[in-house]
Amino acid sequence: MSGDGAMHIQQTPSPNFDARSLPVSLLILHYTNMDSPEAAVARLCDRQSKVSAHYLISQTGEIIQMVDEASRAWHAGVAFWGGIEDVNSASIGIELDHQGHAADGTMAAYPEAQIASLIDLSQDIIARHNIAAAGVLGHSDVAPGRKTDPGEALDWARLAGHGIGLWLDAEAVEPVEALRRDMQNPAVAALQQALSAFGYKVAQDGVFGAALESVIISFQRHFRPTRIDGVADAETQTLIYALCRAARRH
User: From residue 129, how far is each of 4, 23, 122, 142 by CA, in Å?
Assistant: First the structure.
């Protein structure tokens, strides 16, 4: 499907898709990490690349559909969310034309025209598939440690204001000890349980290892982008528990 007719959506079919085995419950946002939308479309439509997405949005706001929403696009790769191992089967994938993180780790802002189209398209997809707020995610959320897109430059707070995804403004921070690599205690175990309940793939061993650090970085990149360091400080922990509660309400 290509929306309700209110948006102009170009069709550039990709051969890279197959049948879904799950109903759509997730919307996954990506950046292309390429120099132009034309280069990205060429790759996403190249049979040899074995990658695709349902949509790509250019920096000037053009929307290109490459895979029908009824089909399984190949955008998430090895990924997990909320018990779902085959994220591709359960999701719609939107690529945003963006060069990604620079060598120094910084990102350019997403242009206004691109975000406006993302809002329109996402609202349409969410309404048609009844996707919960907690089901709107970044690629980095479903593949922590492997992916960093769409990155901290995406204004998730603004998207949530339009009904796209979860966002919480600053909570009253609980005065708890910061948790970091190589710690092992009940607070780490509780944090692992909360992250797992929210949807991340997290071992339940009470040990703050490299994998948990990657999940914390992905969480911060999406929900607390002002400081992305993999340390579960008091603010990060407060947000994790608050978002778990919010996800249950939604």
Answer: 13, 9, 11, 19
